[in-house]
C-alpha cells in the first residue's frame, strides 16, 4: 500500500519539528561564557588592557560599543581557537575568530570584571553630538575603571586571647567522674585560675613600680 500525500506531509512536518527541537535543546549555545573559558579569560585580559591604555584619553568612561571597537583592534593570541561550534541554521557571531566575538559576549565579560571590581558602571550626563546650535544633555551609563587603592581595606582578623582556664582543663569533659570528683575538679580549677590572676597582678604592679622608679631617677 502506497503512502498518501497527507501521510508524507505529516512525516515531513514531524521530522522538521524533531530537528528544530534537537538543535535548540542539544546544540551548543555560543552566547554562554561558561562554555568557552578560554575566550572568557582572554577577553577579560584584552578589555583590561585597552581600558588601562586609554584611561587618560577617556576620563569620562566608555560606552559598551566604544569598548567593543577598542577590543577588536587587539589581535587574538597566537593559536587561539574558540570552543564554540555552530550548527546549520544558527546565527554565527560576527567575530568568531576573536576572543570577543560579539557585543553580547563583551557584556558578559564586563559583568565578570564588575564582579572582580575591575570596572564599575556609573550614570553620566553628556551633551548630544548634534550639529544644531542648541546642545541637549542626556543621561547615559558608562563603564569606568575602579581605583582599587581607594577601596576599603579588609579588617584584620580578631585573634581572641585564650582564657586562663583553657590550659587548666575548663572545657574538658568530666562526665565520666562521679559528682564528688566533678565538684573537686572544678574547685581545683577555680583555685588555680585565682592563683594565676594574683601572679599576673603582682607582676604588673612590679613592672609599673620599676618603670616609675626609672623615670624618677635623676639623669647623669
Automatic annotation (TrEMBL):
Location of region: Disordered: 200-220
Compositional bias per record (Low complexity), positions renumbered to this chain: 203-220
Domain of life where this protein originates: Eukaryota
Protein name: Uncharacterized protein
Species name: Candolleomyces eurysporus
Amino acid at each position: 500500500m502506497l503512502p498518501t500525500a497527507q501521510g508524507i506531509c505529516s512525516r515531513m512536518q514531524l521530522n522538521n519539528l524533531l530537528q528544530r527541537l534537537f538543535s535548540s535543546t542539544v546544540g551548543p549555545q555560543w552566547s554562554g561564557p561558561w562554555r568557552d573559558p578560554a575566550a572568557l579569560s582572554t577577553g577579560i585580559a584584552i578589555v583590561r588592557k585597552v581600558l588601562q591604555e586609554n584611561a587618560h584619553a577617556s576620563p569620562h568612561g566608555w560606552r559598551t560599543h566604544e569598548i567593543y571597537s577598542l577590543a577588536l583592534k587587539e589581535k587574538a593570541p597566537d593559536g587561539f581557537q574558540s570552543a564554540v561550534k555552530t550548527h546549520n541554521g544558527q546565527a554565527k557571531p560576527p567575530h568568531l575568530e576573536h576572543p570577543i566575538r560579539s557585543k553580547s559576549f563583551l557584556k558578559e565579560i564586563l559583568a565578570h570584571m564588575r564582579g572582580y571590581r575591575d570596572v564599575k558602571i556609573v550614570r553620566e550626563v553628556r551633551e548630544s553630538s548634534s550639529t544644531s546650535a542648541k546642545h541637549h544633555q542626556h543621561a547615559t551609563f558608562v563603564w569606568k575603571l575602579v581605583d582599587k587603592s581607594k577601596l576599603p581595606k579588609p579588617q584584620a582578623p580578631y585573634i581572641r586571647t585564650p582564657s586562663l582556664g583553657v590550659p587548666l582543663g575548663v572545657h574538658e569533659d568530666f562526665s565520666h567522674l562521679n559528682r564528688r570528683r566533678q565538684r573537686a575538679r572544678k574547685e581545683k580549677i577555680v583555685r588555680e585560675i585565682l592563683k594565676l590572676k594574683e601572679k599576673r597582678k603582682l607582676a604588673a604592679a612590679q613592672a609599673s613600680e620599676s618603670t616609675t622608679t626609672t623615670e624618677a631617677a635623676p639623669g647623669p
